[in-house]
Amino acid sequence: MAESSTRGRRPRRSTRISQRLERARQRNADQLAEQRWREQRVEDALREFIEAGEAIAAEDAACEAKVAALQRKIDALCAESRERVTGEHTRQAQAALAIHEAGRTVEQVGELLELRSEKEARRLITAGRTAAEAGSGPAQERDTVPAKSSGHRPTGAAAGEETTGAVSGEQRQLRGVDGQQHRPDSGFVPAAVADGGRQNA
Question: What's the superkingdom here (predicted)?
Answer without folding.
Answer: Bacteria
